[in-house]
Amino acid sequence: MTINTMLDLEQLRSVNPDEVNRSELVDIQDIMVESHLPKKERIADYIQKIKNPYLCKCGNMVVQSVFEETDITLVDRLIQYFRMT
Fold first, then answer.
1. 3-state SS, residue 14
2. pTM (global) more than 0.70
Protein backbone atom coordinates (compact mmCIF):
# COMPACT_ATOMS: atom_id res chain seq x y z
CA MET A 1 0.00 0.00 0.00
CA THR A 2 1.20 3.48 -0.83
CA ILE A 3 0.18 6.33 1.44
CA ASN A 4 -0.94 9.17 -0.80
CA THR A 5 -3.29 11.28 1.28
CA MET A 6 -4.20 12.26 4.79
CA LEU A 7 -7.29 10.08 4.32
CA ASP A 8 -5.01 7.08 3.76
CA LEU A 9 -3.21 7.87 7.02
CA GLU A 10 -6.51 8.29 8.87
CA GLN A 11 -7.67 4.89 7.60
CA LEU A 12 -4.42 3.30 8.77
CA ARG A 13 -4.75 4.98 12.17
CA SER A 14 -8.28 3.62 12.61
CA VAL A 15 -7.29 -0.05 12.22
CA ASN A 16 -8.32 -1.92 15.35
CA PRO A 17 -5.31 -3.86 16.73
CA ASP A 18 -7.65 -6.48 18.22
CA GLU A 19 -9.18 -7.26 14.83
CA VAL A 20 -6.11 -7.12 12.58
CA ASN A 21 -4.70 -10.19 10.85
CA ARG A 22 -1.25 -10.50 12.47
CA SER A 23 0.19 -12.15 9.37
CA GLU A 24 -0.46 -8.93 7.42
CA LEU A 25 1.56 -6.79 9.85
CA VAL A 26 5.21 -5.97 9.23
CA ASP A 27 7.59 -7.04 11.99
CA ILE A 28 9.47 -3.93 13.08
CA GLN A 29 12.51 -6.11 13.81
CA ASP A 30 12.83 -6.67 10.06
CA ILE A 31 12.95 -2.94 9.22
CA MET A 32 16.33 -1.41 8.47
CA VAL A 33 16.38 2.38 8.86
CA GLU A 34 18.44 4.02 6.12
CA SER A 35 20.29 6.45 8.40
CA HIS A 36 22.31 7.93 5.52
CA LEU A 37 19.16 9.45 3.95
CA PRO A 38 17.98 13.00 4.72
CA LYS A 39 15.21 13.15 7.35
CA LYS A 40 12.23 13.44 4.95
CA GLU A 41 13.49 10.60 2.77
CA ARG A 42 14.24 8.47 5.85
CA ILE A 43 10.66 8.96 7.07
CA ALA A 44 9.20 8.14 3.64
CA ASP A 45 11.41 5.04 3.38
CA TYR A 46 10.35 3.85 6.84
CA ILE A 47 6.66 4.34 6.10
CA GLN A 48 7.01 2.49 2.81
CA LYS A 49 8.65 -0.43 4.61
CA ILE A 50 6.38 -0.57 7.68
CA LYS A 51 3.21 -0.04 5.56
CA ASN A 52 1.22 1.20 8.57
CA PRO A 53 3.08 3.64 10.84
CA TYR A 54 0.39 3.15 13.50
CA LEU A 55 0.35 -0.63 13.71
CA CYS A 56 3.04 -3.27 13.37
CA LYS A 57 4.29 -6.27 15.26
CA CYS A 58 7.40 -7.03 17.24
CA GLY A 59 7.80 -10.77 17.28
CA ASN A 60 4.39 -12.10 18.33
CA MET A 61 3.23 -8.85 19.91
CA VAL A 62 1.03 -6.33 18.07
CA VAL A 63 2.29 -2.78 18.64
CA GLN A 64 0.04 0.25 18.21
CA SER A 65 1.69 3.67 17.96
CA VAL A 66 0.01 6.94 18.85
CA PHE A 67 1.53 10.23 17.76
CA GLU A 68 0.99 13.59 19.40
CA GLU A 69 1.14 16.95 17.62
CA THR A 70 4.23 18.42 19.28
CA ASP A 71 7.74 19.61 18.58
CA ILE A 72 9.07 17.47 21.42
CA THR A 73 11.03 14.48 20.13
CA LEU A 74 11.18 10.98 21.51
CA VAL A 75 14.75 11.70 22.63
CA ASP A 76 13.51 14.77 24.55
CA ARG A 77 10.85 12.64 26.26
CA LEU A 78 13.34 9.91 27.17
CA ILE A 79 15.72 12.45 28.68
CA GLN A 80 12.83 13.92 30.65
CA TYR A 81 11.80 10.45 31.83
CA PHE A 82 15.25 9.41 32.97
CA ARG A 83 15.75 12.66 34.86
CA MET A 84 12.60 11.89 36.85
CA THR A 85 13.77 8.44 37.96
1. coil
2. no
